[in-house]
Write a structure and sequence with these properties.
The chain is α/β, with parallel strands linked by helices. The protein folds into 2 domains: 134 residues, Alpha-Beta Complex (Aspartate Aminotransferase, domain 1); 234 residues, Type I PLP-dependent aspartate aminotransferase-like (Major domain) (Aspartate Aminotransferase, domain 2, 3-Layer(aba) Sandwich), CATH 3.40.640. The protein is built from 12 helices and 14 strands. The strands form 3 sheets. The chain has a 7-stranded mixed beta sheet with strand order 1-9-8-5-4-2-3, with helices on both faces. The N and C termini lie close together (9 Å).
Amino acid sequence: MFKNLAIRGGKPIVSNPIRRPSPIGKDEIAAGVRVLRSGVLSRAGRGREVLKFEVNFAKYCDVQYAVTTTSGTTALHTALEAIGVCRGDEVIVPALTFVSSASVILQQNARPVFADVDPDTFCLDVSDFKKKITPKTKAVIVVHLYGNPANMRDIIRIAKKHEISVVEDCAQAHGAIYNRHRVGTLGDIGCFSFYQTKNMTCGEGGMVITNKKKLYEACKSIVDHGLIDGYLQGYNYNRLGHNYHMTELQAAIGLAQLKKLNRLNNQRRRNAVLYKKLLSDTPLRFQRETHLGSSVYYGLTALLPEKFISKRDWFIEAVRAENVEINNLYPHALSRTELFRKYNSVKLPVAENVSARLFNCYTNPGITKYYIHATSRAIKKVLSNL
């Protein structure tokens, strides 16, 4: 049965592993060289790249304010501090997401309350979100998972009714659209990551955006040690802050990436469409785009059939043995990990089921049609032997 699978000694689909190309091109290299030659690597050293990045990113998102940070995680942490999350508060977060979406809640000495996800979109389930609200609920962190916008219309309606702040985790959704608006602009505050794998990158880095001046001013102070009015020479502080400064080098690379973000996202979408076409005759089920939303396909996420739920990890190993790459984000519901079990006493059946069956295909803009065809052939080959 397994004689033709590479994992069992058979010939792989591809002779040698296909490498995904670097997201860094001539424009990013030129921007980095320009900053290095200037000798100014930080905003405190009179640099202008960070400020320019903030202004241009805010303009791209059609929002008034933007503040850079060191990562998507610190962007989320900054956002929670700015809205006033503190000890005794509860923050609702979907159970299927990266650890940062919930770990920043613990950093504020608050309690993460996990909600289930929608079985089709894999984003926050609106009905379960509503059930999890208590008098202690301060905020909800809405994750636009794998680049797919969540159901913001209903989430915001419920949040307003209960006077809950809405934080958008857009770490995988730069440029995604919901009801004609960029994600990150629909709630009270939006957070982005510029990590190596994201839709746009500067290696590490993050951004917080908002239309609320008070939140903007709080974020500016939080990322800069609690400085008053951004006046560095004043050395005066009125809150506990952090050193979450982005460097000039990161900002310059981010600016170069921002200029081509729409083009890169369009290529991701085309890559996802091709995967779906090539795999349309398989029993796989793909993440569905949210009504009113348009995904930017950080990755193309698929579910194995229920009958193969116990074989998912083996399936991924077998596909990789064919010398192609697929990923697994995220293999467990976050509520079931060791760190968070004590905060979650109820089962979240959809998140637990989906996380046990999902895998992700790479949609990176630089991959070729050959890469997508080879990956699809490998997936079909392994599926036929499950």
